[in-house]
C-alpha cells in the first residue's frame, strides 16, 4: 500500500451532505475485475452528460480543480454501498485526502486500506476549510499525518483525530494481511477452542 | 456480579482472537459470504501472494448482483460481456479455492443475503461478513453481521479474521403493536426517518420491543437489512423461539446433539438487564404509518398521507441536499404524495424478496390488474423462494395481474443487470436505496413496503394500501 505522510495540494469544495458511493462511482463501473483505471469515472453522473461530455460547472471539471488532491465535503460522506471501487476511483483520480464532518463507517475503513486519509472535523472547521477550498488552485492546503494537522492557505492550523493503529499503517504503507499473519498461531488456537465449544461453526 | 452485557457485547467477546493495547481487535469470522462484484480483486490478491482461503468450509459464494433475471441466463452469451467476465471469475475462484458455491444454474442461487439464511449458513451467535453493505440483514438472527470492502474480503479469505475496533451500543425500541397495513419496512424506514442516515454511525443497533418480537424472521431481516441506511455498522435482534424454528432443519444447521447444544447457547444471547447503551431511540408501534420516500436519501421518509416537503423545511446542509433531491425527483412542494404518478413497480431485493413479501404483495394483487401502461416486475430473492411462490399459486396471481415473473437476483435494486429505469422514469420499489441513478441513470425511486408497491401497481400512483384493505 502507498504510504501517506504529508500532502500539500489543491482542495476542491463539495459542500453537499450525504454524498453516497453510487455518486462517487456509479454501478456500471463496478464490473471491472481490476482496482485501477476508475479515476476517469469518479463522480461520473455529476461530471459528464449522457453523451460523455464534461459538465462545465461540476467542481472537478473547472480548470482550477483538475489537479485536486484533497476533497472537502459535507456530512456523512461515503454513505451507502460497501464498494471499495469508491476509494479506488478517488485514489485513481489523484485525491489522497477527504475532509468532512463525518463519514460512513465502511467507506472510512476502505480509505485506509488504499492509502487515502479521511479526516473528520467539526462542522465549523470544515466550513472554514470549505471557504479556503473555494479559492481555487492558488490556495493549497497542507496535511501532516504524523503531526495530525491541516494547515489552510491562510495559515490556520486544525488538528484532527486518527486511530493510532490506522495512522501507523498509513504512515508506513503496511499491509494488514501481513500484520495479521504474524498472529496466525493465535488464530489457530482460537479456532480449535471454538470448534470444541461451538462445533456447528 | 459481572457487568451486564448487551447482545453486541456478548457476540463481540465471543469472537475476539486478539486484542492490542490500543483496543484494536482481531475478530474471528464464522461465515464469509461472497458475490461476484466485490470479490475478484480479493481472490486475485490471494493468488498473487500465493495464499489459500483459510477456511473454505466457512466461505459461501453466489453470483447475484450482475445476473440477468430473464430465461436463458445460464448461457454467458445472454449476459453483457463484463457481467459474464465477473460471473466466470467467481465460478473459477470458487472452484480453485474450494469454497461452497451456488452457480446461476442451481435452484438455490439467489441474493446472497437470502441464500445465507435459507441454507442455514447464517445462525444465531455467529459473525457474518460479506463484501456488501446489506450484510446487516443477518443480524435478524442475533448474528453480528456487517458489510466490508474488498481489501477486507481478501483479509477474511486469507485469515478468517477482521481487524476491528468495537462500535458503540445503540438501542432502537419499537413499543406496542403495529396498526393494520404497517409492516417491517415501515418500521425500518421510519427509524431512518427519525435518526437520519448518519444516526447510527459508529454504532451497532439492537432492535427490540414488542413490535419487533411480533415480526416473523422475514420481517426481522427486512428491519436489520436497512440498519446500514441508518449509518449503523450492524443491526441485531436477539434470537428467540421463532429464530430457532426458522433455523431448525435447514441444510447447514446443526443436527442432533449439536442442535441441542447450539440452542442452549443461543438462549444466552440477549442483552442483560441494566446493560449500557450509548444511544437509545424509542418509537411507538402505533405511531408508525405506511411510509414512502420522497427524495434521494433513505432518510427522506414521510407517511403516504403527507405532502412533498419544501427545501426550506430543513436546516443546514440538508437545505441544499433537499432542493437537489426535489429537482432530481421532479417533485413540487405541497403535492400530496398520493398524487405522484409512477411508471414502474419493482418488488424484490434483499430487503423484500422473501416469500412473506411475495405473499403480502399477492394478497393485494389477487384478482386485480396492473394499471395500463405500467411496467411491473417481481424478482424473487432466490430460486427456492421462486419455487415456493409457484407452488403456493402466488406466481399465477402476479402473472394474471400483469407482473413480469422473473428469476432470482439483485436486479433493479441496483440495476447492474439489464433491469434498469430509463432516464426520468419513476419507480415504486421495495428495495433499500433511492440514491440518484441507483435504479438507472436519472431514474427516480420511491422506497416502500411490498404491500404499498402492489397497491401502487394497481393505481399507477403512490397509494395508501390501507384504502385497499
What quaternary form is this?
heterodimer
Biggest interface goes to:
A-B, 57 and 82 residues
Q: What's the total number of strands of chain A?
A: 7
* Mean pLDDT score of chain A: 96
Largest sheet of chain B: 5 strands, parallel
Strand content of chain A: 15-25%
Structure description:
- The complex is a heterodimer of chains A (201) and B (469).
- With 201 residues, chain A is of the alpha/beta class.
- Chain A has 8 helices and 7 strands; from the N terminus they run E-H-H-E-H-E-H-E-H-E-E-E-H-H-H.
- A 7-stranded mixed sheet of chain A has the order 4-3-2-1-5-6-7.
- The radius of gyration of chain A is 19 Å and the shape is globular.
- Chain B is 32% helix and 17% strand.
- Chain B is built from 16 helices and 19 strands.
- In chain B, the strands form 5 sheets. In chain B, strands 5-4-3-6-7 form a 5-stranded parallel sheet, with helices on both faces. In chain B, strands 17-16-15-18-19 form a 5-stranded parallel sheet. Chain B has a 4-stranded parallel sheet with strand order 11-10-9-12.
- Chain B is globular, with a radius of gyration of 21 Å.
- The relative contact order of chain B is 0.13.
- Chains A and B meet through helix 4, helix 7 and helix 8 of A and helix 2, helix 3, helix 5, helix 10 and helix 11 of B.
Amino acid at each position: 500500500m502507498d504510504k501517506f505522510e504529508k500532502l500539500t495540494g489543491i482542495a476542491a469544495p463539495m459542500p453537499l451532505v450525504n454524498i453516497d458511493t453510487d455518486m462517487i462511482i456509479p454501478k456500471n463501473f463496478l464490473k471491472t475485475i481490476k482496482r485501477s483505471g476508475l479515476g476517469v469515472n469518479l463522480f461520473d453522473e455529476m461530471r459528464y452528460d449522457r453523451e460523455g461530455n464534461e459538465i462545465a460547472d461540476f467542481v472537478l471539471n473547472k480548470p482550477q480543480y483538475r489537479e485536486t488532491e484533497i476533497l472537502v465535503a459535507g456530512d456523512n460522506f461515503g454513505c451507502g454501498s460497501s464498494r471499495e471501487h469508491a476509494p479506488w476511483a478517488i485514489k485513481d483520480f489523484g485525491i489522497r485526502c477527504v475532509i468532512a464532518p463525518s463519514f460512513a463507517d465502511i467507506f472510512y475503513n476502505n480509505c485506509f486500506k488504499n492509502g487515502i486519509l479521511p479526516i473528520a472535523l467539526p462542522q465549523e472547521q470544515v466550513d472554514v476549510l470549505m471557504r479556503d477550498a473555494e479559492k481555487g488552485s492558488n490556495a493549497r492546503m497542507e496535511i501532516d499525518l504524523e503531526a495530525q494537522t491541516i494547515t489552510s492557505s491562510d495559515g490556520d492550523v486544525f488538528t484532527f483525530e486518527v486511530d493510532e493503529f490506522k495512522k501507523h499503517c498509513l504512515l508506513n504503507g503496511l499491509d494488514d494481511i501481513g500484520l495479521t499473519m504474524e498472529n496466525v498461531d493465535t488464530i489457530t488456537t482460537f479456532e480449535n477452542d471454538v470448534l470444541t465449544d461451538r462445533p456447528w461453526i | 456480579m459481572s457487568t451486564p452485557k448487551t447482545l453486541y457485547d456478548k457476540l463481540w467477546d465471543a469472537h475476539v482472537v486478539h486484542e492490542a493495547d490500543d483496543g484494536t481487535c482481531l475478530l474471528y469470522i464464522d461465515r464469509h459470504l461472497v458475490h461476484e462484484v466485490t470479490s475478484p480483486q480479493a481472490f486475485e490478491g490471494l493468488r498473487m501472494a500465493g495464499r489459500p482461503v483459510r477456511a473454505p468450509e466457512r466461505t459461501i459464494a453466489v453470483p447475484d448482483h450482475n445476473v440477468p433475471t430473464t430465461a436463458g441466463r445460464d448461457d454467458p452469451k445472454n449476459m453483457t460481456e463484463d457481467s459474464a467476465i465477473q460471473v466466470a471469475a467467481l465460478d473459477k475462484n470458487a472452484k480453485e479455492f474450494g469454497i461452497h458455491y451456488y452457480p446461476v444454474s442451481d435452484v438455490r442461487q439467489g441474493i446472497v443475503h437470502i441464500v445465507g439464511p435459507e441454507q442455514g449458513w447464517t445462525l444465531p451467535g455467529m459473525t457474518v461478513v460479506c463484501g456488501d453493505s446489506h450484510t446487516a440483514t443477518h443480524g435478524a438472527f442475533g448474528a453480528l453481521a456487517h458489510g466490508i470492502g474488498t481489501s477486507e474480503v481478501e483479509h477474511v479469505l486469507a485469515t478468517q479474521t477482521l481487524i476491528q475496533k468495537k462500535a458503540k451500543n445503540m438501542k432502537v425500541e419499537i413499543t406496542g403493536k403495529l396498526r393494520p397495513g404497517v409492516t417491517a419496512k415501515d418500521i425500518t424506514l421510519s427509524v431512518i426517518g427519525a435518526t437520519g442516515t448518519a444516526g447510527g454511525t459508529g454504532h451497532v443497533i439492537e432492535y427490540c420491543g414488542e413490535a419487533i418480537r411480533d415480526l416473523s424472521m422475514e420481517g426481522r431481516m427486512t428491519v436489520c437489512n436497512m440498519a446500514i441506511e441508518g449509518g449503523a455498522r450492524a443491526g441485531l435482534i436477539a434470537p428467540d423461539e421463532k429464530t430457532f424454528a426458522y433455523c431448525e432443519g435447514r441444510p447447514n444447521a446443526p443436527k442432533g446433539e449439536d442442535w441441542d447444544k447450539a440452542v442452549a447457547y443461543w438462549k444466552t444471547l440477549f442483552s442483560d438487564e441494566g446493560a449500557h447503551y450509548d444511544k437509545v431511540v424509542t418509537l411507538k408501534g402505533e405511531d408508525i404509518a405506511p411510509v414512502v420516500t420522497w427524495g434521494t436519501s433513505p432518510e427522506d421518509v414521510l407517511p403516504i398521507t403527507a405532502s412533498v416537503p419544501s427545501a426550506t423545511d430543513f436546516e443546514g446542509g440538508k437545505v441544499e441536499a433537499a432542493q437537489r433531491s426535489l429537482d432530481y425527483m421532479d417533485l413540487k412542494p405541497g403535492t400530496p404524495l398520493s398524487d405522484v404518478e409512477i411508471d414502474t413497480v419493482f418488488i424484490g431485493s434483499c430487503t423484500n424478496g422473501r416469500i412473506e413479501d411475495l405473499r403480502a404483495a399477492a394478497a393485494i394483487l389477487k384478482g386485480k390488474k396492473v394499471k395500463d401502461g405500467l411496467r411491473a416486475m417481481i424478482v424473487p430473492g432466490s430460486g427456492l423462494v421462486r419455487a415456493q411462490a409457484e407452488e403456493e399459486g402466488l406466481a399465477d396471481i402476479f402473472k394474471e395481474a400483469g407482473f413480469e415473473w422473473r428469476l432470482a437476483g439483485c436486479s433493479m435494486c441496483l440495476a447492474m443487470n439489464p433491469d434498469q429505469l430509463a432516464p426520468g422514469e419513476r419507480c415504486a420499489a421495495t428495495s433499500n436505496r433511492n440514491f440518484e441513478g441507483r435504479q438507472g441513470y436519472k431514474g427516480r425511486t420511491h422506497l416502500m413496503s411490498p404491500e404499498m408497491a402492489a397497491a401502487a401497481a394497481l393505481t399507477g400512483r403512490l397509494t395508501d394500501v390501507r384504502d385497499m384493505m
